Amino acid sequence: MSAEVEEMLKRLQNYKNIIGIVVIDNDGIPIKTTLEYTTTLHYAAVMHMLRQKASQAVLDLDGTNEFTLLRMRTLYHEVILCTQGDYFIVVLQSPCD
To answer: Whole-angstrom Cα distance, residue 36 to residue 49?
Structure first.
C-alpha cells in the first residue's frame, strides 16, 4: 500500500464521526483495518459481494462506465465504499443529522 493511502487513512481517522476503516483487496481479504477482527471479517465479506454486484449493475446500465463509489445510509451508520485499483476502502461512520 502506498504512502498516499496511509496518509489518507490517518486523515480519515481524525474525523469525529468515523467509526472505522477497512482496506480490502480485490479478493475480499482485509489488508488494513481500524475495527476489531470479527467486525472486519464481516464487513470485508459483505462489502466484497456488494462491490461485485454494484460493479456489474453499473456495467449493465452503461458498458462504458465503471463503479467508483457507493454511499449507503442505515438507521445507525453510513457506509462509504470506494474503489482504488487493486483494493477498495470501506469507511463506516455515524450519520450526521
So the answer is: 20
pLDDT for 29 equals 94
The amino acid sitting at 53 is K
Euclidean distance between CA atoms 22 and 24, whole angstroms: 6
Query: Per residue in 32-65, pLDDT tens?
Result: 899 999 999 999 999 999 999 999 999 999 989 9
Output phi, psi for 19, to 5 deg. Answer: -90, -40
Locus of grid cell 456488494: 50
According to the 3-state scheme, what is the secondary structure of 33-85?
ECCCHHHHHHHHHHHHHHHHHHHHHHHHHCCCCCCCEEEEECCCCEEEEEEEC
Q: How many CB atoms lie within 10 A of CB 76?
A: 9
Q: What is the CA radius of gyration of the chain?
A: 13
Query: What is the pTM for the complete model shown?
Result: 0.86
User: Is the dihedral angle over the CA atoms 2, 41, 74, 85 positive or is it negative?
Assistant: positive
